[in-house]
Write a structure and sequence with these properties.
Layout lengths: L9 H27 L24 H7 L3 E9 L9 H10 L6 H9 L15 E10 L5 E4 L1 H4 L2 E7 L5 E10 L4 E6 L20 E6 L7 E12 L9 E4 L11 E3 L5 E8 L10 E5 H14 L5 E2 L2 E5 L2 H7 L7 E6 L4 H5 L6 E5 L2 E2 L3 H9 L6 E8 L2 E8 L1 E2 L17 E3 L4 E5 L10 E6 L4 H4 L7 E5 L2 E2 L3 H13 L4 E8 L2 E8 L4
Antiparallel strand pairs: 1-2, 1-4, 2-3, 3-6, 4-5, 5-6, 7-8, 7-10, 8-9, 9-12, 10-11, 11-12, 13-20, 14-15, 15-16, 16-17, 16-18, 18-19, 21-22, 22-23, 23-24, 24-25, 24-26, 26-27
């Protein structure tokens, strides 16, 4: 084999390079020796890559085989109101047919299928029903089945179908629309395979298996991970969903999501899907919520919740600054409802609720959940931020009832006072033709601070910096006072569409 040739000067360069490498290695060795004798503080220690010596499951068959017999399909029979053509009542119906020949095809068609005879009387045709399907799972050997409220809603008959295709009639024990949970009961057996709710919340990234009845196929298994926790999807005041990426589709509603121990971490309830199909984003009601609700339904057929009776909103950084709070926390009371426990206890607009019986309140959702967990007639100690300091208010809670909100549109004439720095034009309620007292927003500069905070034409300003206002001049005076007190923002209490909210405008704009 012919030796490779080197160009003149190459050997010397290689030798020089080798010498530098040897010197570098020696230096590293010396540094290593010095390091071995030197204590390096933890915060300055060299970082190492994260490594977890844990194997993923080869498959999910062991979990599925254990829990699948407890998962069922739920078939719901719903009454469907017939849609009848309107002929203007019985007389109109008779007149319609009197104008048609006896052998006209319409005569025969409506006689056979229309449900009425020539005298306008309705035939005794059978009542029509529709069917809907969902999923569920046994939580006891004697036949209690958990599913979603929206699965059984408006149902008249309920059938539970197990893994082997065996059908059982079920009775609705109770349902709770606010958390979208329902409880059915199958009679006649006491040896159903059942599963339990997990005691601990799942970790993000944890494996999860969803089993249910997608598209009526029954017994379908999908797997994925927990994508997020504490999701608020606008479904209700107690939103606290677990997000999973295990494929969930129509019919999976009410089915369980399992951890690798075969425990139910959540009840599948909703999907995010612009197309109507699975896109890898599904939401499950957490076991912690489901456990409490299901136990109440099992014991009494309904869920009772404490009621405070306030309209609340999030405390933003601007609102916190306007109130003198060190940080944005709690829930600010926009309005205490008339004849409510809050009103009776003296809670008022502008109070910021920081804690209930010592439990800190991070925001409106926290407050809703904490209050709802109390039984009606319970007296609670509410810590509020009022007039720049913490105060304690005792409130005896009432019973939460469903209420209907009304919406009213307001239009106002042109205003008379312009606050250019805020981008507002204001007038009095009287000049705007409105009953009551307050200052009406008649114009909003779309590029101004007020528009950025979603103030709109027709909004009624009731208070500024805690002071009731009746005229635009009152608004100017209140802003000046807040500025003199060194506030970074000024707080407006605004009524709009029968709702009350607070809006904080920065002082540098005013």
């Amino acid at each position: 084999m012919q030796d490779r040739q080197t160009k003149p000067g190459t050997r010397s360069r290689l030798t020089s390079r080798r010498a530098r490498l040897l010197l570098g290695a020696a230096a590293l060795g010396l540094a290593g020796a010095m390091t071995a004798q030197t204590v390096i503080p933890a915060q300055t220690a060299l970082a190492t890559p994260v490594r977890i010596d844990r194997t993923a499951p080869a498959d999910f068959s062991e979990v599925v085989q254990a829990v699948q017999p407890a998962v069922v399909s739920v078939r719901v029979k719903q009454a469907v109101e017939p849609r009848m053509m309107n002929f203007g009542g019985r007389e109109g119906f008779r007149e319609f047919f009197e104008d048609l020949p006896e052998d006209h095809p319409f005569q025969r068609f409506f006689r056979e299928f229309g449900g009425r005879d020539f005298d306008g009387r309705r035939d005794r045709s059978p009542r029509r029903f529709g069917l809907s399907q969902g999923s569920g799972f046994f939580i006891s050997a004697d036949g209690y089945v958990v599913t979603n409220h929206h699965v059984i809603d408006k149902g008249t008959e309920f059938t539970v179908i197990d893994q082997d295709g065996e059908e059982y009639d079920a009775t609705l024990i109770g349902a709770d629309a606010r958390t979208d949970l329902a409880l059915l009961k199958v009679e006649g057996k006491d040896d159903f395979t059942y599963v339990a709710f997990a005691d601990d919340a799942p970790m993000v990234g944890e494996w999860v298996v969803a089993i249910g009845n997608p598209f009526g196929l029954g017994g379908s298994v999908t797997a994925g991970i927990v994508s997020a926790r504490g999701r608020d999807i606008g479904a209700g005041p107690y939103d606290d969903f677990i997000q999973i990426d295990a494929p969930v589709n129509r019919g999976n509603s009410g089915g369980p999501a399992f951890n690798m121990n075969g425990e139910v971490i959540g009840v599948n309830a909703a999907i995010f899907s612009p197309s109507g199909g699975n896109v890898g984003i599904a939401f499950a009601i957490p076991a912690s919520t489901a456990t409490d609700v299901i136990m109440e339904l099992r014991d009494g057929g309904k869920v009772t919740r404490g009621w405070l009776g306030v309209q609340i909103q999030t405390v933003t950084e601007d609102i916190a600054a306007s109130l003198g709070l060190d940080d944005a926390r709690g829930a600010i009371v926009a309005e205490a409802q008339a004849d409510s426990p809050a009103a009776a206890a003296g809670l008022r607009s502008g109070d910021t609720i920081l804690a209930v019986d010592g439990t800190e309140i991070e925001g409106p959702r926290d407050l809703s959940k904490v209050i709802a967990a109390y039984e009606p007639d319970t007296t609670v100690d509410i810590t509020v931020w009022r007039d720049g300091k913490e105060q304690s208010v005792d409130v005896t809670l009432g019973r939460l009832q469903d209420t209907e909100a009304t919406v009213a549109a307001v239009e106002t004439p042109a205003g008379e006072t312009s606050l250019e720095d805020l981008g507002l034009v204001l007038t009095t309620a009287e000049k705007a033709g409105l009953d009551g007292e307050g200052v009406v927003v008649s114009e909003v500069d779309p590029d101004g601070p007020a528009a950025e905070k979603r103030l709109r034409r027709g909004d009624l300003i009731k208070e500024v910096a805690g002071v009731a206002v009746k005229t635009p001049a009152d608004v100017v005076d209140a802003i000046a006072k807040a500025e003199k007190e060194g506030r970074k923002a000024v707080l407006f209490r605004v009524e709009s569409n029968d709702n009350t909210r607070f809006v904080a405008l920065p002082m540098n704009a005013a």
